[in-house]
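Please check our next protein.
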Amino acid sequence: MRLYKVFRGAEWTELDRAGETEGGPDDQRDGFVHFSTREQLGRTLERHFKGETGLVLAACESDEMGEALSWEEGRDGESFPHLHRTLSRDEVVWHTELPRDGIDTMALGDE
């Protein structure tokens, strides 16, 4: 299954430079890297990144994350994917800069 991670521009640049990341400030505070499914992505952007520009969307395959990936209940009772280790740049199968007016999840392709 394809999972998605939203990065602020500086966070993406650091991942690209360093080759791995513990995620952004929220990820580091919580102790895991937050991901979203295709269906959850719009709500994630609205809730956590509203009004921000310079965002980068990265896609990863859940099968590549092994046992470090877990599904945990969020505030609204929905299960979200969390990675309990650093994310490697090599695990990102593609990335794109997000347009200012959001993203059409239909354009994300097949999972």
